[in-house]
Write a structure and sequence with these properties.
The chain is mainly α. It contains 22 helices and two strands. It folds into three domains: 20-211, no CATH class; 240-335, no CATH class; 339-481, no CATH class. Helix 2 (31-53) packs antiparallel against helix 3 (61-80) and helix 5 runs antiparallel to helix 6 (139-161).
Length: 503
């Protein structure tokens, strides 16, 4: 029998709190996942309390900042124990850089230190100390912190060192014109709404939320757009504050559905079975392809659950309001991290990518793609690869995605217009492109889940490298129309993936 005071005897090792170990043992769920879920459920309740009782009309911004920080610190210590020290070291180190560094270089130093520390932690956790994939994985929150540190550093540089005419419209809106005080900085980095799963949001948006001007400023942004004007937004600051309850309930129901699917499907369709030698030798190619497709589908609900729940938590606190949509309804998707419907119905590789881990894609665009003087796509790819980690499977995924993305664009530009002559033909084209897109995604992201070189090559051999060979031939045969650099800047194609680890 396991003794509570002997962590080494636990079937699921963790450096986090052992308080919920009986729950973990009863349900047979890893303790780190129980801790995570408990913290997120507590965060949801705290978020409602934060909006109702710590509203800016009732308390000062100092109180709101302090409570957000303390709850965030409690969550990371509860989930990660002494591993949380890595998060605090990075946050305080980069605050020192922000305060002491020359304004013209603060963004460079912050990027180098944050990415360097993240990479060192990932290398040491995976290789040097042979941690492998421990049930306690602190790199997810560290990845989110890295995004926040660099986002703030670049936006601070925009506000202090660049002229307005040098900035894009979005950069001007998000530019930070003074260095944050320690309390503001820690609240942005460590707040309980996003400390565990994210997403990363812009500093000014977060501060406006804390100060209580977030909703009204979002409503006022639409008053100059006549098509979206609605009686709900006629007078700035005098309308009742929109309630997020409807959006929160909808997202919670969706999260519960995704959790049920994850618990039922993932164990029934394990990813590891794709590289089972007996399965590969005995099953036909079509059977292997079919199983790969459904096993990847079964893996997605974990991400859907975590990201949708995180979005609901922010909304419950009153954060995430994006304005009024074209139908005149209040929208709470400012910091949403995915669009499940568009992911599942994606008819192109780009459509899938653009709706998966949306805020990471926005971060890559804002800190790299929009600022790179040369080769923005290549540099964005490098930053994305470094940010995700050091497992070889991650790099297999990114490299495999390149010819598939280029080939998909070539096919679309050369053939799509032939299928628009009638509704029936277009539906058939959409069904075909949906199937190809989903299979391409399955083939591309499999190494991301297998992680290591040998299982990745085993899987690709069993698939005869078909999604390497066919796209490469398409790229060589079909003409590709290259867009200008400025046109690419306005319509970037980024590669982003998850910051939630499979355990």
């Amino acid at each position: 029998k396991c003794r509570m005071e002997d962590p080494q005897s636990f079937p699921y090792r963790t450096t986090g709190s052992l308080f919920l170990y009986p729950v973990s043992e009863f349900f047979g769920v890893p303790l780190d996942q129980v801790n995570f879920l408990a913290c997120q459920l507590f965060a949801l309740l705290a978020a409602f309390w934060f909006r109702l009782y710590l509203h800016p009309k009732n308390v000062s911004t100092t109180v709101r900042h302090a409570v957000a920080i303390l709850l965030g610190i409690f969550f990371v210590i509860f989930c990660f124990g002494w591993y949380s020290a890595h998060i605090f070291i990075l946050v305080f180190s980069c605050y020192y850089i922000m305060v002491k560094a020359n304004n013209h270089n603060v963004h460079r130093y912050s990027l180098i230190v944050a990415m360097g520390y993240l990479t060192l932690c990932q290398v040491s956790r995976v290789y040097i100390f042979s941690y492998g994939i421990l049930s306690t994985d602190f790199s997810g929150p560290l990845m989110i912190i890295t995004q926040k540190i660099t986002t703030l550093a670049f936006q601070l540089h925009d506000g202090l060192c660049r002229k307005a005419e040098q900035l894009t419209t979005e950069q001007r809106r998000l530019a930070v014109n003074s260095k944050p005080h320690l309390l503001e900085y820690l609240s942005y980095q460590l707040n309980f709404l996003s400390i565990l799963v994210g997403p990363c949001s812009n500093y000014k948006d977060y501060i406006e939320f804390i100060e209580g001007t977030h909703v009204y400023k979002r409503l006022s942004m639409g008053t100059s757009m006549e098509n979206n004007i609605n009686e709900k937004q006629n007078v700035y600051g005098t309308v009742p504050e929109p309630s997020p309850v409807g959006a929160v309930i909808k997202k919670l129901l969706l999260s519960i559905g995704c959790l049920i699917l994850f618990l039922s499907l993932t164990k029934a369709l394990p990813i590891s079975y794709n590289i089972d030698s007996q399965f590969i030798n005995e099953a036909s190619f079509l059977a292997r392809l079919t199983y790969a497709f459904f096993s990847i589908q079964a893996a997605r609900p974990k991400f859907y659950f975590a990201w949708t729940l995180a979005d609901a938590i922010s909304n419950a606190a009153g954060y995430g309001f994006s304005g009024v949509d074209k139908d005149g309804n209040f929208s709470w998707d400012l910091i949403s991290n995915l669009n499940i419907w568009k992911i599942e119905t994606a008819t192109s590789f780009k459509m899938f990518i653009d709706n998966w881990n949306i805020q990471t894609g926005a971060w890559l665009k804002r800190v790299c793609y929009d600022r790179a003087p040369y080769y923005p796509t290549a540099l964005t790819f490098v930053l994305s690869a470094l940010w995700h980690g050091v497992y070889p499977g991650y790099y297999f995924t990114f490299i495999t995605a390149i010819p598939i993305t280029i080939a998909a664009k070539a096919v679309r530009k050369n053939f799509r217009h032939y299928f628009l002559s009638s509704w029936t033909i277009k539906i058939m084209y959409d069904i075909l492109t949906w199937a190809v897109t989903q299979l391409a995604v399955c083939y591309t992201v499999m190494p991301f889940l297998l992680l290591a070189v040998e299982p990745t090559l085993t899987f690709y051999k069993s698939m005869y490298f078909h999604f390497h060979i066919i796209p490469s031939l398409i790229v060589l045969i079909l003409p590709i129309k290259h867009r200008s650099h400025m046109e690419q800047k306005s319509h970037p194609s980024h590669i982003s993936n998850n910051n939630i680890k499979y355990n």
